[in-house]
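Exercise: predict the fold of this chain.
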Amino acid sequence: MDFGFDNSFHATMEGFYTPAEAATPPEPKLLAFNAALAERLGLKVDAGDDEAVARVFSGHTVPDGANPLAFAYAGHQFGHFSSQLGDGRALLLGEVVAPDGARFDLQLKGSGPTAFSRNGDGKAAIGPVLREYLVSEAMAAMGVPTTRALAAVATGERVQRERAHPGAVLTRVASSHIRVGTFQFFAAHFGADHVTQLSDYAIRRHFPELAGAANPHLALLDHVIGLQCELVAHWLGVGFIHGVMNTDNVAISGETIDYGPCAFMDRFAVETVFSSIDANGRYAYGRQPQIMHWNMARFAEALLPAIHAVAPDDVERAKELVAAISDRFLGVWFTRMRAKLGLVGAGDEDSALIDRLFGDLETHGIDFTSFFRALAMLLRGDAAMMEAQLPHPDAMAPWIADWWARLESEGIAPLDRAAAMDAVNPLYIPRNHQVEAALGAAEAGDLEPWLALLEVVRNPYTARAEWADYAGPAPAEAAAYTTYCGT
């Protein structure tokens, strides 16, 4: 098994991590392996040797060239700053360079305690591991920037939470694991030199084109803000609620990271919260842009020592970048919504049209995902799907009439427009009731429902008759859905 590790963080960033060692699982057993992702990474893995794969991706066997380490980071958790968090149940095996030159981290999650565990066991249960695998693969299939899942391995031991669960380890693939909280840790504890070193490394690794800027650290702030605007707009566009947008869960690469109490919205409500620990709705669906703005302000604060060291006057420019985030996000958001609605150009009344749409969706409790597919069916002359969404046929008639008039103003053939809408509006998402059913079956030893759902969400845009049961929300009488942090 050859990974060809090229561990730049370990080699050049001593003092930014601690060495780590995985706990030895008693009976590792492979649950899932992402062969397509392994090929993308250029890994030479014998996918037919399940035992060897399970040993490596559970932490039982350390592959040649690995330099296991745990990242140091801090973070604002629900608005309160914790000066030391770090990888308490994860370790970085190493970095691989894909055939196209892209660099990726391979990280084990749930592999046991590290120096940052704070008396925790460092383990993970099968439910959170398979949830992250499933949801991150669904996000990737929808084109949402995200970390990926390479493998899930059962450990053969029980993990005690509110009760005992089967243990498991996830292998997560990311462009890197540098977070806003990473910058916060070194800004809080060490100051400008360490922040500058971390920023320089992040630029070399992720954004080498920024190295020639007059102030590369200011350019990094600007670029990361743009990535986060795009990311959160994409989340909103597919009805995704991250659930725990703490600064230690914000990757500077612009990838979705840390799928803890996450879920997708069924019937639209802007204040939707699924997380059991978000009692005040801080991370509700509709607050995610505001929290992104707040998180980027914290990133700017952490970067200020490096920005100031190059050019003190650029501190004011950093403040201006943060102040402009709301307008910047709205520009990205309206572009995404126009695509979902089949619009090509910008119109003066688009903002009002979009705002009215969300008001109507909430008033009538309409399924967010299915609604946009139903709009495309209207363009094909088929109203059945839309009628099934509405409490009565005329419930959204005024809005639909205005939307139709806006489409006609652009003069594009309806069938062409419908196809373009279907290409950006998923039909299949990880529906919450289906995810829970699949995870419950997996914990009981039956992986088939989870594997079937995984296949569906990896193909989110093309309708298949045999998948009709995957396209709808939970029954109206279903209990309110709640998710829990995986730690």
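Check your answer against the key: The chain has 17 helices and twelve strands.
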